[in-house]
Amino acid sequence: MGRTFLHTGTVTRRDLLRTTAVGAAALVLPVRLAACIRRDPDLERLTKWVETLRGEGLAGSQAPLGLAAVRVGELAAGTPYEPYTLEEYLRNGGSPLQEPLTVSLTRFDCVTLVESCLAVARVARTDGPPTWKGFGHEIERMRYRRGHRAGYISRLHYFSEWITDGTQRGLLKDLGSELGGSEDTRPLRFMTEHRDEYPALRDRDAFDEIRRTERRISARPRRVVPSKRIPQMVNRIESGDVLGFATSIPGLDVTHTAFAYRDKSGTLRVLHAPLSGGVVEVTGATLPEYVAAIRRATGILVARPV
User: What is the pLDDT of residue 276?
Assistant: First the structure.
């Protein structure tokens, strides 16, 4: 079950009633209702996964954050893929001006899997027992521009900007140049050119702001490691590096996201939440093989969690 934060502070009964009224499918946290005695699969997973990281020595500052994140991905294997969870509030009549923070450890799409694994890894590094509020804070500072949630337009919709924004704030290191990436200078305009596919863009102000965002981020070329160069780079890509699969689709930067995953034999594969497979998994294909099989793929964006 996912959860939706409407505010970052204490949640009141009024907040709960308001959330129910707009049809949010998830519970509002961080507080748990004393009268509600039931299992909480999301919180159980958070607690168990943090305990696992701490017990395996993956929660200290000396352990690579990416390695801890893919360990969480291993623990999440088999979890269902569910698309468009961040848009549920819009389908239920919510306003793009007030986007709630939707988080879950029991359902993922490709981006929320990456965010959630990194968030659990960062929570594990904090003192004391893990809290859902702390987990939500880690998600928020990755998902939104400059870490501040201010409606739909503040979400980092284009994954190349997700990497750039995270790099600027010390959450990631962009490895594009280091790995010999080529510049992708094509303008990004997929969202505004496919307005009907994005419910929030029915709002004129939201549409105009997303168009301004597209123009701004298009001025910064993306560094893409070309598909033909990936086999030469596999020894420089680490388990836990974040991958964005670049595409030639006009106006779009990335069609899928994942973690690089080095198995016990040392082979570099992909850990992801695929639409086709329906659950979180590690690919049988190697990373170069996986990219080669993606229609219209041009290469990968690579960033290292720090």
Answer: 82
